[in-house]
Design a protein that fits this description.
Elements: H1 2-25, H2 28-80
């Protein structure tokens, strides 16, 4: 019984994926809309990842600057005493 359900589910999944591919390969206008959708989704994903990268990079540079400042202050304090 379970194998029949798995087979029916596989057939349904196959049909849905076929219809999705068919809609993106029919007329030129539909194909361009599908490409635009994929491109805009990829661009949004890239922009989000790049913003996260920039934030982490800025945080790293701030941390490095603070550590350099602490080292300089330590050297000055050692020279005083």
């Amino acid at each position: 019984m379970a194998s029949v359900a798995i087979m029916a589910g596989g057939a349904l999944l196959n049909a849905v994926s076929f219809i999705g591919q068919l809609s993106c390969s029919l007329p030129l206008r539909i194909r361009s809309q599908c490409r635009k959708r994929r491109k805009s989704a990829a661009l949004e994903e890239y922009q989000a990842a790049y913003a996260t990268y920039q934030e982490k990079r800025t945080h790293l540079f701030d941390w490095m600057a603070i550590n350099d400042r602490i080292k300089q202050q330590t050297k000055q304090n050692r020279l005083r005493f």
